């Protein structure tokens, strides 16, 4: 008998099938306009099913019906943008088992936090290409470890080529939403992320209004540079955390999300990507609470709202959406996503894009 996890996967893939056979989607709407329906963003690809930030993960997300795939961008020593969740790669590649790179292990201050490991800025692209991706959360996603050491670290250019190929094959425009990771950190190393990102988009003729491209960042200063200095035409989204401030920024994320802060953000970005708890917070007993005014306030400022991150495992769900006591088993992820979709959000980041697609259909 199929377990709950299998049932969810089979049902979601079946629901996604019509979308995969559909016609080419309309271009992303201009700043301030509303989408006809919320969009599904494959968080680091289909990272619930394949090691994150691999071409295999991105491709699976698209085939499951995701509207966008999300590569996180960091720089190599020779200033090439590659896709990793962080500049530290000890937890996402097999570098720790490679004796030829043992001496490159070091400790750095990454946005004020001491981090020890191996860092992309110490590797050329050719060296990084000898490494292989591994599952970042092996205790949670044991099935993903089946694919350890099968896939190399992709470049941003390779992701855009994959996007173009899949758009033709699937008959719909696959979007891409790169995130600049720790831009202040890389700028201090002489490896700023903005220039190669913009150059790559323009080389692929994607820096135009109406293309299905967003650029996202947790740093407002990074987004201002992209809009005002580099004059990018694609949509920008400001990511926010439930606590704290952007690195080196005196303004807190909470201040950015006030009505006045959102109005100011709208002068240079097109949307926000809040922690989902900023849309519907959890109560003291970890159950799902009452929606805040954030979606309404952001829409009033002309901004889209795309919260993160929706995951199917119990440990990531509100207490009242969990099933059983196994923290790694699937809970009521569809129900959670339907609840959030009905707040009026414009999309969601999910590790399991097939579940996102099905939830969107059921939310009506």
Q: How are the elements arranged and paired?
A:
Layout: H1 4-20, E1 39-42, H2 55-63, E2 68-69, E3 72-75, E4 81-83, E5 106-110, E6 113-117, H3 125-128, H4 156-170, E7 175-176, E8 179-180, H5 183-188, H6 194-203, E9 214-217, H7 220-229, E10 235-240, H8 253-256, H9 259-265, E11 271-274, H10 294-300, E12 304-305, H11 333-341, E13 347-350, H12 353-363
Helix pairs in contact: 1-12, 2-4, 11-12
Could you describe the 3D structure shown?
The protein is an alpha/beta fold. Helices cover 30% and strands 13% of the residues. The protein contains twelve helices and 13 strands. The protein has helices at residues 4-20, 55-63, 125-128, 156-170, 183-188, 194-203, 220-229, 253-256, 259-265, 294-300, 333-341, 353-363, and strands spanning 39-42, 68-69, 72-75, 81-83, 106-110, 113-117, 175-176, 179-180, 214-217, 235-240, 271-274, 304-305, 347-350. It has a four-stranded parallel β-sheet, with helices on one face. A four-stranded parallel β-sheet has the order 9-10-11-12, with helices on one face. Strands 4-3-8 form a three-stranded mixed β-sheet. Strand 5 and strand 6 form a beta hairpin. Helix 1 (4-20) crosses helix 12 (353-363), helix 2 packs parallel to helix 4 and helix 11 (333-341) crosses helix 12 (353-363). The protein is globular, with a radius of gyration of 20 Å. The two termini are 30 Å apart. Mean pLDDT is 92; it is low at 1-35.
């Amino acid at each position: 008998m199929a377990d709950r996890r299998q049932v969810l996967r089979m049902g979601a893939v079946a629901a996604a099938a019509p979308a995969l056979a559909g016609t080419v989607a309309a271009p992303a709407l201009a700043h301030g306009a509303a989408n006809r329906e919320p969009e599904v963003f494959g968080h680091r690809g289909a990272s619930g099913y394949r090691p994150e930030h691999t071409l295999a993960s991105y491709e699976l997300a698209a085939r499951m019906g995701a509207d966008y795939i999300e590569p996180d961008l960091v720089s190599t020593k020779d200033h090439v943008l590659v896709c990793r969740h962080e500049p530290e790669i000890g937890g996402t590649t097999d570098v720790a088992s490679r004796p030829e790179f043992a001496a490159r292990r070091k400790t750095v201050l990454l946005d004020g936090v001491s981090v020890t490991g191996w860092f992309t800025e110490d590797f050329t692209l050719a060296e990084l290409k000898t490494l292989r991706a591994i599952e970042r959360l092996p205790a949670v996603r044991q099935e993903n470890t089946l694919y350890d050491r099968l896939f190399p670290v992709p470049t941003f250019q390779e992701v855009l080529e994959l996007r173009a190929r899949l758009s033709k094959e699937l008959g719909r425009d696959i979007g891409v939403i790169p995130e600049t990771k720790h831009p202040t950190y890389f700028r201090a190393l002489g490896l700023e992320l903005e220039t190669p990102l913009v150059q790559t988009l323009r080389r692929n003729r994607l820096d135009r209004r109406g293309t299905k491209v967003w650029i996202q960042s947790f740093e407002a200063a990074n987004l201002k540079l992209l809009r005002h200095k580099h004059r990018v035409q694609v949509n920008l989204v400001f990511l926010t955390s439930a606590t704290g401030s952007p690195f080196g920024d005196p303004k807190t994320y909470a201040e950015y999300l006030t009505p006045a802060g959102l109005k100011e953000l709208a002068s240079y970005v097109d949307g926000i990507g809040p922690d989902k708890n900023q849309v519907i917070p959890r109560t003291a007993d970890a159950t799902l609470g009452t929606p805040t005014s954030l979606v309404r306030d952001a829409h009033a400022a002309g901004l889209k709202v795309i919260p993160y991150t929706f995951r199917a495992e119990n440990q990531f769900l509100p207490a009242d959406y969990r099933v059983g006591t196994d923290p790694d088993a699937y809970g009521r992820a569809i129900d959670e996503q339907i609840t959030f979709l009905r707040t009026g959000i414009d999309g969601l980041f999910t590790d399991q894009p097939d579940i996102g697609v099905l939830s969107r259909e059921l939310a009506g």
